[in-house]
Amino acid sequence: MPQFRQFITTFAFIISIFVATAISAKADPLTFSNAVALQNNGMTRVDLLSNPGVTIFGPQISFLVDIQGTVPVGGTSLLRITYTEAGGVPIVQTFSIPAFDTVFPPYSQLFTINSPGATFQGIPATLTISILGPPGFSLGPGPGQFMTHTYSFIVAQPVPEPVSLILFGTGVLGLWRKVSQRRRQGTPH
């Protein structure tokens, strides 16, 4: 019987150390990084942090952002995307973290924005990415705070390739020639 008591005492001691360690262990905070714009059908990635003011070609722009860390126990957080062009109305998208309530970090979130004001000259734009925690959760020094960062860049319409312009011009010229021939011959269209 004394061996059994010693076993129980030792077992209880080990469990108490394990519980104390688990309670004092801190989870990795929920963060994002590596915000990139995808260009050339996803073949080129433009790092928005390292290239402030870079020109990105739209009007439809896809972005990737890496999500890391631990979601609070029993809760969800939100990834909020706010895209704003100079003089325009902000476009806001939100995504649940964990994604689809089943995919926990780390993962990369893909999202696409349609630029309403992209021109050939380009228009200044910003992309603000924020992680919002559930009530009582904190990523910063106080409750309810969140992680956020704003990236600045220019959005421009791509200039058509010279070959495309030549093909278009040749087609219009051929059509014009066909119509003018029919008019000279007096043949109805």
Q: Characteristics of this structure?
A:
single chain, 189 residues, alpha+beta, Immunoglobulin-like, 2 domains, five-stranded mixed β-sheet, four-stranded antiparallel β-sheet, 25% helix
Structural write-up:
- By secondary structure, this protein is α+β, with helices and mostly antiparallel strands.
- The chain is 25% helix and 37% strand.
- The protein is built from two helices and nine strands.
- The strands form two sheets. A five-stranded mixed β-sheet has the order 3-9-8-5-6, with no helix packed on it. It has a four-stranded antiparallel β-sheet with strand order 2-1-4-7, with no helix packed on it.
What would CATH call the class of the largest domain? Answer: Mainly Beta
Percentage beta strand: 35-45%
Query: Unreliable stretches, pLDDT < 50, 5 or more residues?
Result: 17-25
* CATH second-level architecture of the largest domain: Sandwich
Q: Helix amount, in percent?
A: 10-25%
Number of helices: 2
Q: How many strands, what sense, and barrel or not for the largest sheet? A: 5 strands, mixed
**Global structural class:** alpha+beta
| Secondary structure tally: strands | 9
Shape descriptor reads: elongated
Taken together, the total number of domains comes to 2
Any idea what the radius of gyration is? 29 Å
CATH topology (level 3) name of the largest domain: Immunoglobulin-like
Topology as a string of helices (H) and strands (E): HEEEEEEEEEH
Q: If you average the pLDDT, what whole number results?
A: 79
Distance between the termini: 110 Å
Largest sheet, spatial ordering of strands: 3-9-8-5-6
